[in-house]
Amino acid sequence: MRQFSALFVALPLLAGLGCSAGPAPTGENSEAKEWAQLRQQRGHFDGAAWNKDLDAWQGRKHQLLQGLAERLLAEKPDEAGVRALMGEPDVQVAADGAEYADWLRRTEWRGEPGEKMWSYQWRGNHDQLLVAFSGERVSAVGWLYAWE
Which residues, listed in sequence order, are joined to residue 144 by a DSSP beta bridge? Predict the structure, then answer.
């Protein structure tokens, strides 16, 4: 009985320290908030005027996506964690989808892509950050560039 009561004391303490079955990033950080704001704006690749923050190589939107990609790769959150950090993906494809083999081949991957991929557009569908999942967890991130 003593072990059982110790468990009820220990679990809330561990949860308070951030221990969990797996990391799940929250959207409560400045990078995620700034990404959400820039994501709503339109630049050259979306049919609007050129905007260096949105359209330039190493512009602010590109830098934010790079930082968020690093975080996803390090923390390997589940789908809910990715949505909390990044929002809804622009496109989702599964291994049996027509785009899957093309994206798999053309993307510069870090990690091992799984059976589904989500796209977050940087410059329209011209250049995109892809997030791949094995099961429910992030397994890889990669850049799908147009290379023009």
Answer: 128
